[in-house]
Design goal:
Elements: E1 3-4, E2 7-10, H1 12-18, H2 23-30, H3 34-41, H4 49-59, H5 63-66, E3 67-70, E4 74-75
Antiparallel strand pairs: 1-4, 2-3
Length: 76
């Protein structure tokens, strides 16, 4: 059985630190929990498309600048 290893890499941490926001402040601004921001920053969670757009809009950047798709190989 083959497993897809594609992933989404994000720059949420970098943008948050540049704006000098806590995880809680960012979470409140985009309507999620602090835990959601925490796991997203660790790249352990890929946000919904809606949340990705909310984050990009909040920081005033294009969604492509904040989130990068990385195509992985297939494992057998």
């Amino acid at each position: 059985m083959e497993k897809n290893t594609d992933s989404i890499i994000n720059k949420v941490y970098e943008y948050r630190v540049l704006r000098r926001l806590s995880q809680s402040e960012l979470a409140q601004a985009v309507g999620v929990s602090k835990q959601t921001i925490f796991v997203m920053e660790k790249n352990n969670y890929s946000p919904s498309l809606l949340l990705a757009y909310r984050l990009a809009e909040f920081f005033g950047v294009r969604i492509e600048d904040m989130f990068t798709y990385e195509k992985g190989g297939e494992e057998g």
